[in-house]
Amino acid sequence: MQYALRSLGRRMQSRAELERKLLARTTPEVARSVVARLIEWGYLDDRKFAEAFVHSRRRNWGKLRFRAELARRGVDEQIVCEVLAEGGEEGEEELERALALLHKSAWRHKGEHAHMVRFLQGRGYALAVAVEAAQRYQKLREDGETK
User: Fold this and answer.
1) Are the beta carbons of 117 and 103 closer than 8 angstroms?
2) Contact criterion met (CB below 8 Å) for 94 and 34
3) Among 1, 14, 30, 95, which has the highest number of CB atoms less than 10 A from its own CB?
4) What is the pLDDT of residues 54-93, one digit of tens each?
5) Within this chain, do residues 80 and 111 fall inside the same structural domain, yes or no?
6) Which domain holds residue 8?
């Protein structure tokens, strides 16, 4: 129990992450018992973890990256979908974030369309969003409104 509390004190974790850590140190029965008790006490909550995770990285990541990272950390797909839907981020807002990311990281892609699209896809933006953001960035660049 002490190890689990210290681990949660360092950073929020999903139920599956903490259970994996505990399984490396103890028996499966003890690990499940500790996790169940922490959930019961409110110290371990996958929904709160997913919300904090998304909030802390929202400026730099797209929905696809969040889905992959939260799945890797063992968060239930339904919770991930609900948390991403609660963000209320639809088309235009996500496109604006992608465009802002291109402005912020112009030195990486040097304004080349294919590099910008790959860069945004690597950050978890859908292909359609990445292409549209790259096109808008190039238009702004041609108009002299950006570097």
Assistant:
1) no
2) no
3) 14
4) 988 887 888 889 999 999 999 999 999 998 887 655 667 8
5) no
6) 1-44
